Amino acid sequence: MRPALAVFESYLTVYRRTWRGSVLGSFVLPVLVMVGFGLGVGHFVDAGGRLGPVRYLDYIVPGQVAVTAFNQGSFESMWPVLSGFEWSRTYHSLAAAPLRIVDILGGDLLFIVFRLLTTSVVFLGIAAAFGAIHSPWAVAVPFVCALLGLAVATPVHALSARMTSDSYFSLLLRFGLIPLGLFSGVYFPVTALPSALRLLAYLSPLWHATEVCRAATLPGVPMSALALAGHLGYLAVWLVVGFWLAVLAFRRKLVS
Amino acid sequence: MIYARGLVKRFGNFTAVDGIDVDVARGEAFGFLGPNGAGKSSTMRMIGCVSPPTAGTLRILGMDPHRQGTAIRARLGVCPQLDSLDPELTVAENLVTYARYFGIPRRTAKARAAELLDFVQLRERADSRVEPLSGGMKRRLTIARALVNNPDIALLDEPTTGLDPQARHLVWDRLFRLKQQGMTLVLTTHYMDEAEQLCDRLVVMDTGRIVAEGSPRSLIDRYSTREVVELRFPDTAPEDVAGKLAELAERVEVLPDRILLYADDGDAAAEAVHRLALGPASVLVRRSGLEDVFLHLTGRTLVD
Ligand SMILES: Nc1ncnc2c1ncn2[C@@H]1O[C@H](COP(=O)(O)OP(=O)(O)OP(=O)(O)O)[C@@H](O)[C@H]1O
Ligand SMILES: [Mg+2]
Predict the structure, then answer these.
(1) pLDDT for A101-119, tens place per residue?
(2) Which of A66, A177, A200, B205 could pair with B34 in a Cys bridge, judged by C-beta atoms 3.0 to 4.6 Å apart?
């Protein structure tokens, strides 16, 4: 654990200089969501009455928290990882130190968890200020976001480690992250999707996290212990398999 | 400190290191000299425990890289061929964070960083970013970083390639001090003068094999004459004159742009060339160096 903490510490050394901007940034997005979706889109949706008694703002907040973690977990594993191998080559210098591959990855993931937790706490705080949080279970949301973020960060780490240029990232965005973001029940219930797309949603880690977050912030959305375990277990499988893939990809790059 | 027998590194079916034997003793400055692609970096990466040997035996500090890689790396200092400094950190932070990977406490790491920045003459740049540093400064910082853990062996892969002469001399001077302090240095280079100045002992590598081994002086004595005459002929093809010169020296090497005459008495050989009245554009007599050893052993020049 200590070696991974030393790697985490080096990220914090950089973050100490940039945290103001990044925290400010993590305030801007939720405020935009509150105003844009709450007052703008929400006005029309609520008038249509398709969501029943639930306000659209309340509906979208848990999904937005989750998709933010989904994106953050991915982005923090794209350019920074590619750069560490190909541009700044910092991973190579880590490999020459008495660190194992798991220490290097562990340090990366600790920092990503730290960022996921702070971002989702800020998001929830702002949502609460707008009256969009209706259950004390909301305190569990940052942890669900951390799990989701790691569940995507690990396989994306593995992909980025195998790339030699960033031109593949636009493919990953267009055919992976953006469709998943749209069709995972963040903006509308997946039951509104044609069945083929619905299957995609059920496979998407984002859908599982969104379901859990929604149950944790909305009133009267009960979730059985079994369903909860299923959703979290599915995310854990992504995390474990992703971690294993990332270890393989890192080893291939660093030990040759 | 380092013991290798029959060390082999293959990438697919390409053999980068082809069965080399190496022994490095404590306190020694040991060099791998060879042209591009000779297998120097591949060897250094195996010694640095980031590249498993394909075959052969390798022991570093008495340990097995396969099973004790982390323990070995804790006692090595590595200056890789390509700089891998963290561009998002300052000069001093690069050293402190790297020291932390070795489990060195923060306070000690800061003191050590300050000391090393003095040593490599970068104290005034301590709080600067890495980006604006010159190539020579980055290289010195990378060397300083390799020293944060007070290593038993410093592995330096082409420490001065790409630097201007002044920057190279500064690096040499620092490395020479390390050597005087008794640190074991292992370095690679394709500069003869670097090898001659810094190495107690070296091996000449070519296409993955060791072609000669010894001190710089002994290699020159064994594989070259004391002096060399360099002749340039502007109009004539060198091959045409070479035949006429064969008599005048122990050995003649014909290069695309010049002819080298190997003789123990260079002035006498130059004198003899004049008598032939072939009209060379220039005649230069110099002492033999490792460049000549390499040329003799491989028939090729080292730096092209
Ligand atoms: N990871 C790799 N995969 C495939 N081939 C490699 C790899 N690393 C090195 N090689 C090949 O092995 C040979 C030896 O390379 P190496 O880097 O050890 O040479 P070198 O002596 O350090 O040369 P240079 O002076 O250019 O640094 C080269 O032909 C190189 O292309
Ligand atoms: Mg090399």
Answers:
(1) 999 999 999 999 999 999 9
(2) B205
Q: How far is B123 from chain A (nearest CA, A)?
A: 20
Average pLDDT of chain B, as a whole number = 91
Task: Answer whether B71 sits within 8 Å of A10, measured CB to CB.
Answer: no
B22 and B97 co-located in one domain: yes
- B300 is a domain residue: no
Coil/strand/helix, residue B208: coil
Measured from the Cα of B161, ligand 1's closest atom is 25
Report how far ligand 2's centroid is from the alpha carbon of B40 (Å): 5
- CATH at B276: 3.30.70.980
Q: Are residue B147 and residue B271 in the same domain, yes or no? A: no
* Contacts for A39 with CB less than 8 Å, ≥ 6 apart: none
What are A9-61's pLDDT values in tens digits?
999 999 999 888 888 888 888 888 878 887 788 888 888 877 878 889 999 99
Going by their DSSP bridges, the two strands B55-60 and B2-11 should be labelled as antiparallel
Residues B253 and B161 in one domain: no
The amino acid present at A139, given as its one-letter code, is V
Do both B90 and B164 map to the same domain? yes
Check whether residue B74 and residue B188 sit in a common domain: yes
The ipTM estimated for the assembled molecules is 0.91
E strands, chain A, in order: none
Number of domains present in the structure of chain B: 2
Residues in A whose CB is inside 8 Å of some CB of B read 2-3, 6-7, 9-10, 13-14, 88-90, 92-100, 254-256
* CB A147, CB A213: distance < 8 Å: no
Domain that holds residue B40: 2-215
- In this structure, are B174 and B97 located in the same domain? yes
Nearest to A186, CA basis, from A66, A87, A106: A66
CATH number for the domain including B187?
3.40.50.300
Nearest-CA residue for ligand 1 atom 4 is B11
